[in-house]
Design brief:
- With about 375 residues, the protein is an alpha/beta fold.
- It has three domains: about 110 residues, no CATH class; about 130 residues, Rossmann fold, CATH 3.40.50.300; about 100 residues, no CATH class.
- Helices cover about 60% and strands about 5% of the residues.
- It contains 17 helices and five strands.
- Helix 9 crosses helix 10, helix 11 packs parallel to helix 12 and helix 15 crosses helix 16.
């Protein structure tokens, strides 16, 4: 049968019939378990190590001292899922609160520190931080304004901020100057329009100059009450792998360390990394290791007692979401098990033996386990189509 014929066989009515049957028998409307190629959008199952991150958020919120935590685990144990969860929770926590920035950064496809800095400035620009800073300083007394401007160490940053202040009375002009300021801070080529509007003389063409400019913007904004905290979630830091020269890696790690040092009161950083990358990076740059001593370790599944609750969590979540999606349209949801506990135990033990034999790995990653559940569930669903 051709692909076209197979797909035409799965017409909308047929799909609806299958969904109704799944709902009526199992209380679901689709496969409950994510395939390996679906790294995001998963439900989140709480794990004990989260408490350490929650305590760090509490300290950051209470004491206004920077926190840096390393989320360590092999590929597939749930680092991305954990960062997704905390991104969502932080956005919910600070919803409606001014001055908090929650920024998620993926180093793919090009892992350069410039990308992180640009992402931070982009977030500031989207929230009109630069324009609001210009307005705030314009409305202060000259002494107050000078006190705030002196917080910036860079003469060039002070010139840029002064230009924002002068443009503040005119909304359109302020927006234009703020746009040019964002371009300059991002390290773009210095053109006449930047020189004329911002009165700056030099391009920010190095990691050091951009990090210093970021520090100045953060400190000035903080002194005005416009910035209260930055949450930076860095995923897959191990992308600085063996294919990248040691010099490039050292420059990247040094820049991350410098960013931590530059913001002792405003930064909450959560970094996801593999154990192998952590060992490699720490040996390359001991100063980097000194900033990352708080480690949250995620482990693979090693027993049925760990695997079965995860299976049940995804099953229960799928049932809850199915009811929310279809309501009473498909009747009463069924409670039969698409996969039995015995099926799942047998599958997990097979994966455990395979991981030991083929990967010399103790335990099964959550990704591999869920992917295997997806395949097993797909076989059962395929039988219903026949």
């Amino acid at each position: 049968m051709s692909l076209k014929e197979r797909l035409r066989a799965s017409t909308a009515p047929a799909v609806d019939d299958l969904r109704k049957r799944l709902f009526g028998e199992f209380g679901i409307v689709k496969n409950p378990y994510p395939v390996a190629g679906e790294p995001s959008g998963h439900p989140h199952s709480e794990i004990p190590v989260e408490e350490e991150i929650i305590r760090a958020v509490e300290v950051f919120d209470r004491d206004h001292t920077s926190q840096v935590l390393l989320v360590e685990g092999t590929q597939g144990v749930g680092k991305t899922n954990l960062l997704n969860y905390f991104q969502s929770e932080l956005e919910n926590l600070y919803e409606g609160s001014q001055g908090f920035y929650i920024i998620r950064y993926y180093p793919d496809p090009e892992s350069t520190f410039d990308g992180i800095i640009k992402r931070l400035f982009q977030e500031f620009h989207e929230e009109n931080l630069l324009a609001n800073l210009g307005k705030y300083l314009h409305d202060r007394t000259e002494d107050e304004r000078e006190t705030t401007l002196e917080t910036a160490h860079s003469h060039e940053v002070r010139l840029m901020l002064t230009s924002l202040v002068k443009a503040a009375p005119n909304e359109a002009e302020l927006a234009d100057v703020a746009e040019l300021a964002f371009e300059w801070l991002s390290g773009m080529r210095l053109l006449n329009k930047h020189r004329e509007a911002l009165h700056v003389h030099f391009r920010l063409d190095s990691v050091e100059s951009k990090t210093q400019a970021l520090r100045d913007i953060v400190l000035c904004s903080s002194s005005c009450g416009l910035l209260k905290g930055m949450f930076l979630l860095l995923d897959e830091l191990e992308k600085q792998d063996y294919s990248v020269s040691k010099t490039v890696v050292l420059r990247y790690l040094s820049a991350v360390r410098a960013l931590i040092d530059a913001l002792p009161n405003h930064l909450f950083m959560l970094i996801a990394i593999t154990p192998a990358a952590r060992t490699r990076y720490f040996s390359m740059l001991p100063a980097f290791a000194g900033r990352l001593q708080n480690v949250v370790r995620l482990q693979p599944l090693t027993t049925d007692a760990e695997a079965l609750p995860l299976f049940q969590f995804y099953t229960d979540t799928a049932r809850t979401r199915a009811i929310e999606e279809v309501g009473t349209a498909f009747g009463t949801p069924g409670r039969k098990a698409l996969l039995s506990n015995a099926d799942v135990q047998d599958l997990f033990r097979l994966l455990l033996r395979r991981a030991a034999a083929e990967k010399a790995q103790e335990g099964v990653t959550q990704r591999d386990f869920l992917n295997a559940l997806h395949k097993a569930a797909e076989e059962k669903i395929g039988q219903l189509k026949q």
